[in-house]
Amino acid sequence: METRERIISALFQDVRLNGFQGLRADKVIVDLGITKGALYHYFPSKKEIGATIIDEVLYPMYTEFYERLDQVEGDPVPALQEHLRWHAGICDDQEAILGCPLNNLVQEMSPLDETFRLKLNKIVGKMQRSIMEALRRGQALGVLKPTFDCDTVAWFYLSSLEGSYSMAKVSKSGTVFKRSIQQLIYFLETLKA
């Protein structure tokens, strides 16, 4: 792994544990055994670190599934349900304590920095649009009920997913997350024609 990628990975893990405001880049570089000069060569400011984590770690991490969802031609419900099952499968108590990296940064940084908010909103917007368009395609094919608003349901889906992470984090319980996600899986069944 290249030095830059090692630094990004370590900085991301530190942000995941301590939040962006709690980031200790000086500790990270000591742990990596690199110099402060090496860090500043790649990232001249803390804000640049945050922008890089959002653009190069979070964006691909969170949009990969939704880019695949864009290719679903038929009923999107099974793909959405499988994605939820994947989330439930990886969310043990330790993951619950850490929370969702995207949600954590949205909560922490959106009120504090407009650049962060816009970058995070780009990720959320991509996720929402992909769900909305998949639902619209399902309605157009007649496999989903025509009676619900796809835009609203897409926001509800994301709110439920991210809210489930928040409730799991505050309760320190992967079980809370799994139960909540199971309800969202059941809800998706109600959309079918």
Key words describing this protein structure:
193 residues; mainly alpha; Arc Repressor Mutant, subunit A; Tetracycline Repressor, domain 2; 78% helix; 0% strand
Determine the mean pLDDT: 95
CATH architectural arrangement of the largest domain: Orthogonal Bundle
Structural class: mainly alpha
What gap, in angstroms, lies between the N and C termini?
A: 49 Å
H/E series, N to C?
HHHHHHHHHH
Number of strands: 0
> What is the helix fraction of residues, given as a range?
over 70%
> Strand percentage, roughly?
under 5%
Contiguous helical run count? 10
Describe the main β-sheet briefly.
Answer: none
CATH class label of the largest domain: Mainly Alpha
- Rg: 19 Å
Describe the protein.
The chain has helices spanning 3-18, 25-32, 36-42, 46-69, 77-90, 93-98, 101-109, 114-141, 150-171, 174-189. Helix 5 (77-90) packs antiparallel against helix 10 (174-189), helix 7 (101-109) crosses helix 8 and helix 9 (150-171) packs antiparallel against helix 10. The longest helix has 28 residues, at 114-141. The protein is elongated and about 60 Å long. The chain is 78% helix and 0% strand. With 193 residues, it is mainly α. It folds into 2 domains: 1-44, Arc Repressor Mutant, subunit A, CATH 1.10.10; 53-189, Orthogonal Bundle (Tetracycline Repressor, domain 2), CATH 1.10.357.
